[in-house]
Write a structure and sequence with these properties.
This protein is mainly alpha-helical. The chain has a single domain, classed as 2-Layer Sandwich (Ybab, Chain: A). The protein contains five helices and three strands. The chain has a three-stranded antiparallel β-sheet. Helix 1 packs antiparallel against helix 3. It starts with a helix and ends in an 18-residue tail after the last helix.
């Protein structure tokens, strides 16, 4: 390795580039996390007598049952309807979160399959230790490798 001033300047420039990439990624992940924490999913029965709200983790945070729901559904039907609406609301919030996370995932990897365990999380890791020669190719696998603008905003989310 050449220790000349020009080689040192090139290494310093590369280090600055990598640190800038890291800082943008860290900020964008923090912004994405903040956006996701406030996301909710909602679903309602066709007649609006049953309404469900879930948070970003899929926890039920709201359940509204109008009196007509008790007349329309038997207890077992009402339980099935509530469960269906919870699933629908969870799907809605998961899809919204997928849009936010898309820039941070490798191309071809869906957020839903990663979260459900269908996709092995090792797809996020490099196959071998990264080097100066392999980093750019590894980083380019992620759809978000070029989704920052001058303000480092996450794009592609809802």
């Amino acid at each position: 390795m050449d220790a000349s001033p020009s080689a040192n300047a090139a290494l310093r420039a590369r280090l600055d580039e990598l640190l800038g990439d890291y800082d943008r990624l860290r900020k964008n992940l923090s912004d994405a996390q903040s956006r996701m924490r406030v996301m909710t999913g909602t679903a309602a029965s066709t007649d609006g007598s049953v309404k469900v709200v879930v948070d970003f983790r899929g926890r039920v945070t709201g359940l509204e049952l109008e009196p007509r729901a008790y007349r329309r559904y038997s207890p077992s039907q009402l339980a099935v309807e509530i469960r269906r609406l919870i699933d629908q609301a969870v799907s809605e919030v998961t899809n919204a979160m997928a849009g936010v996370m898309r820039p941070f995932l490798p191309a071809g990897v869906s957020y839903a399959s990663l979260m459900s365990g269908e996709t092995d999380p090792s797809v996020l890791s490099p196959d071998a230790p990264l080097t100066n020669e392999t980093y750019d190719a590894w980083r380019a696998r992620f759809s978000g490798s070029s989704v920052t603008d001058g303000d480092s905003q996450v794009r592609g989310g809802p």
